[in-house]
Design a protein that fits this description.
Layout: E1 3-9, E2 14-15, E3 20-27, E4 30-38, E5 59-66, H1 67-73, E6 86-93, E7 100-106, E8 111-113
Length: 117
């Protein structure tokens, strides 16, 4: 299955449809953009996995979630400056033959993540 992500909006109790996400590969202080995408109605990449098993490599990666943009688009009154702008998750893939699922649970004021299945 490779690498996947899923975002749930804990403020509204639904998938974060319409949130912008960027995926990067990282090495030391360098990051390289792999792709940008907008989450579908289920809060997932509309094209499926970000990497399949054949393409996923051992290394470090970054997912950047546009939290501020998403909640502003939903009409949530956010203070200026708002508490969360982007959620940046840096993570490592040690076993390219395994599935790495990176879910995000998010509100305008908090987030949580873990390695899912």
């Amino acid at each position: 299955m490779g690498l996947s992500t899923h975002v749930l909006d804990t403020m509204h109790g639904c998938p974060a449809a319409g949130m912008g996400v960027a995926l990067y590969t990282t090495q030391a202080d360098q990051s390289t953009l792999v792709k940008r995408f907008v989450l579908n109605a289920d809060g997932r990449n509309p094209d499926g996995p970000l990497y399949d098993n054949a393409s996923l490599k051992v290394g470090t990666y970054r997912l950047v979630f546009d939290v501020r943009g998403y909640f502003a688009q939903r009409g949530v009154a956010l203070p200026e400056p708002n508490f969360l702008n982007q959620v940046i998750l840096d993570f490592g893939v040690a076993h390219a033959d395994q599935h790495y699922h990176v879910p995000l649970l998010v509100s305008p004021w908090s987030y949580s993540t873990y390695r899912g299945s």
